[in-house]
Structures are given as structure tokens and as C-alpha cells.
Design a protein that fits this description.
The complex is a heterodimer of chains A (108) and B (113). Chain A is built from no helices and 11 strands. By secondary structure, chain A is mainly β. Classes of the chains: A mainly beta (108), B mainly beta (113).
């Protein structure tokens, strides 16, 4: 099975902290990469796509390193509302493999 | 705009019973998927349909069948439910030609007793 691995956490951080998640993938043929956010008992929701050039959306920055086969997510100035499970995903057309998720808890 | 709609939201079955999970999307997406999510296992692909009229097995297809009824609808059928099929089921859709962003339905919590 082509794997996508990520640290399950939990990551417990104070408000305002910067937190980084990494995710490794085993299938070098993977073409598309994403970070999803999943709140408890809810569906995963797309947070952002991940590109080799790196991309930023407000407080969130995602990076792809194809040579080392990992993707990363950086969250700056953490908010209480960022508390959730973050899923990385990678794959090709019709077969997106998800990691098991990293739980983030942001404390006051 | 509803996105991806799944029914039912909750279901309890007895071992051996059958049921069909319904999924519909209104985003005109070509591709549709069924995933299951179990504690400690993450999301696993059951079946997917790249386009209307085609279906393919994913990682865990045993015990399931699917039907791509039309471009909008993709159903998942359990012919003879087993306790191992207790899970949360998510339907998703995406554009085949783009970078495979998946949009998920709200999920079905299924318990098989």
C-alpha cells in the first residue's frame, strides 16, 4: 500500500504560537498534494493545495519537497479556532491517499 | 449551493442486513469517491468513479458495491452488512482534469450490530 505518514500528535500549543506539521509519502509518482482540516465528527475540508514552489494563505504556509518526499504545513499566530485534526493527502488521479491526521489543540 | 449531499446521516443495521448509502453532488464534477474512516486507520478509499459509467476499486472494496447512476449520483451498497463495516462513510467529488481537490459530504455514521 502506498503510504502517507504523519505524526498523530496531539500538538498542544498556546495561542499565538507557530506550529509545523510534516507528512511523508512513499509513492514517488504522486502528483497532487493537499492539507485538509477535520473538526470532530465532521467531514474533512480542504485547507490548501501544496505546490513545489510553496504557497501561502494568510497564516498558513504549505511546502512540498519532492526530493525528500514530504510536505509541510506551518501555522503562524495560532488561534483557538485552529484546533482540529489536520490531514495530509497525496496521490494521483483517482487515488488520493490520506494520512491518519495530526491533532492540534490550541490553548488560551 | 449544497455541494455533496449524503443520506442517511446515521444508520444502525443488524448483521446480514443490506442497505444503500446515497450521494449526490451539484458541482458538475466528473469524479466521485467513497471513503471510510475508522479510528487509527484514517480515510481509506473503497471505490471511485472517474466519470459517469465507470467505477474502480480502491483500497478496501470487499463487501461493497457501487453504482454511478448519472453524473450527479454515486451510491454505495452493503449487500450483507458485517460488524467490521461499522465506520463513518464519506462521499466526495472532484474535477478529474484539475488537481484532484476533493469535496466531502457530511458523512454517514454506520453501526452494524
Amino acid at each position: 500500500r502506498k503510504e502517507v505518514e504523519q505524526d498523530p500528535g496531539p500538538f498542544n500549543v498556546p495561542e499565538g504560537a507557530t506550529v509545523a506539521f510534516n507528512c511523508t509519502y512513499s509513492n514517488s509518482a504522486s502528483q497532487s498534494f493537499f492539507w485538509y482540516r477535520q473538526d470532530c465528527r465532521k467531514e474533512p475540508k480542504l485547507l490548501m493545495s501544496v505546490y513545489s514552489s510553496g504557497n501561502e494563505d494568510g497564516r498558513f504556509t504549505a511546502q512540498l519537497n519532492r526530493a525528500s518526499q514530504y510536505i509541510s504545513l506551518l501555522i503562524r499566530d495560532s488561534k483557538l479556532s485552529d484546533s482540529a485534526t489536520y490531514l495530509c493527502a497525496g496521490g494521483s488521479q483517482g487515488n488520493l491517499i490520506f494520512g491518519k491526521g495530526t491533532k492540534l489543540s490550541v490553548k488560551p | 449551493n449544497a455541494g455533496v449531499t449524503q443520506t442517511p446521516k446515521f444508520q444502525v443495521l443488524k448483521t446480514g442486513q443490506s442497505m444503500t448509502l446515497q450521494c449526490a453532488q451539484d458541482m458538475n464534477h466528473n469524479s466521485m469517491y467513497w471513503y471510510r474512516q475508522d479510528p487509527g486507520m484514517g480515510l481509506r478509499l473503497i471505490y471511485y468513479s472517474a466519470s459517469e459509467g465507470t467505477t474502480d476499486k480502491g483500497e478496501v472494496p470487499n463487501g461493497y458495491n457501487v453504482s454511478r447512476l448519472n453524473k450527479r449520483e454515486f451510491s454505495l451498497r452493503l449487500e450483507s452488512a458485517a460488524p467490521s463495516q461499522t465506520s463513518v462513510y464519506f462521499c466526495a467529488s472532484s474535477e478529474w482534469d484539475s488537481d484532484e481537490k476533493l469535496f466531502f459530504g457530511s458523512g454517514t455514521q454506520l453501526s452494524v450490530l
